Automatic annotation (TrEMBL):
The modification 4-aspartylphosphate is found at residue 57. Its EC number is 2.7.13.3. Pfam families: HATPase_c, Response_reg. It catalyses: ATP + protein L-histidine = ADP + protein N-phospho-L-histidine. SMART domains: HATPase_c, REC. This is histidine kinase.
Length: 378
């Protein structure tokens, strides 16, 4: 049992002879043992020593084991410590009561010491496995973060170099055409546009790394959707309407308006572009149907939310980017997910407690589902 020698077991019983019996057996197994003879003393030891596992007697005066377990479960810092109840009460309802309070196992008195050691070993193995899993998840997250940084760096380098080349090209033209004011003005406008695009990339990068929640405003959902659609249509010169189904109507929600309208606008333009590049034969709404559907939802962590689904019947999600669509700079303009748009959209929604999900539409096309809490806590 050498692999468990660093683990500390807390033995709690109001009978000193029972405490000493369990303590000696566990110490012979190579374990560190702390002891307590009352419920309050047990809580004090836990606060001071943070044991890996607790063997807890149920029937004690003043504060019984059930109450001790309840208090351990109520505190975030002690909730994960496994508790094995040790008691003379072997009735089924008593076991159910103990397990329902958060205990992981139940040993009846008189204690079979070898059985007790086997149960302790089982729980310590589970603790070890959980630690290994947590370590692997941490390392995986670090690897993903490193890969993300690499992808962002390469993507920004590529985009900025291209745009800077454009700027320098127009500057060279202005040098050659300095005596033709109309051409200089035209090229200056092009330089300004390219510089704005560079500033946009920098702004997107800032949005991607910021983890604090943006300030929110309470606004009508109907107004929010209307403004988002108008923003999308104005920004891209699209006159075709979006079919909207909003049974929640004027319900007020807490959002960061600028970010939300930008996200919904991106999802709408992705849906529009999924049909291919604009052309005379596909500019009509009937040729590029986009449906926006609102519905109530529940958050996984609890709380009311609303769901907005943007549905198109375009080319759908390319298999080449399906597993990477939320990574920056992994797709082309012909596919869903361009630049850092989807990365930023999901990051922003998750910061607000929501999420963004991309899925295939039955019959062809894509469904982009935006989920956001109705209320934001201060």
């Amino acid at each position: 049992m050498n692999s468990f020698t660093r683990e500390k077991i807390l033995v709690v019983d109001d009978q000193p002879v029972n405490v000493q019996l369990l303590k000696r057996k566990l110490e012979r197994e190579g374990l560190q043992v702390a002891t307590a003879h009352s419920g309050q003393e047990a809580l004090d030891v836990v606060a001071r020593a943070r044991p890996s596992l607790i063997l807890l007697d149920v029937m004690m005066p003043d504060m019984d084991g059930i109450e001790v377990c309840r208090r351990l479960q109520a505190a975030e810092c002690t909730r994960a410590i496994p508790v094995i109840f040790v008691t003379a009460r072997g009735a089924r309802e008593h076991k159910i009561e103990g397990l329902s309070m958060g205990a992981v196992d139940y040993i009846t008195k008189p204690v079979d010491l070898d059985e007790m050691v086997a149960r302790v070993r089982t729980q310590l193995r589970l603790i070890s496995i959980n630690r290994e899993m947590a370590d692997l998840q941490k390392r995986l997250a670090e690897a993903r973060r490193a890969a993300l940084i690499g992808a962002v760096t390469q993507g920004i380098e590529h985009n900025l170099n291209n745009m800077l080349a454009v700027v320098l090209g127009y500057v060279d033209l202005m040098k050659l055409q300095y005596n033709r004011p109309e051409l200089v003005k035209s090229n200056a406008t092009n330089v300004e546009s390219a510089v704005k695009r560079i500033a946009g990339v920098i702004k997107q990068l800032n949005q991607l790394v910021v983890r604090t929640r943006p300030p929110v405003t309470r606004v009508s959902l109907q107004t929010l959707i209307g403004n988002s659609i108008a923003r999308y249509q104005d920004a891209f010169g699209i006159t075709a309407p979006v079919a909207v189904s909003n049974p929640l109507g004027e319900m007020e929600v807490d959002v960061h308006v600028e970010s939300f309208e930008d996200i919904l606008g991106k999802l709408l333009i992705n849906a529009w572009e999924s049909y291919g590049f604009p052309g005379a034969d596909v500019d009509g709404a009937s040729a590029r149907p986009i449906t926006l559907t609102v519905s109530p939802a529940k958050l996984a962590q609890g709380g009311d939310a609303f769901r907005i689904s943007v549905e198109d019947q375009g080319r759908g999600i390319s298999p080449e980017i399906r597993d990477h669509m939320f990574e920056p700079f992994v797709s082309t303009k012909q596919n869903v997910g361009v630049g850092m748009g989807l990365s930023i959209a999901r990051h922003t929604l998750r910061t607000l407690g929501g999420d963004l999900i991309m899925s295939d539409r039955e019959g062809g096309g894509t469904v982009a589902t935006l989920i956001c809490p109705v209320r934001q806590e201060e």
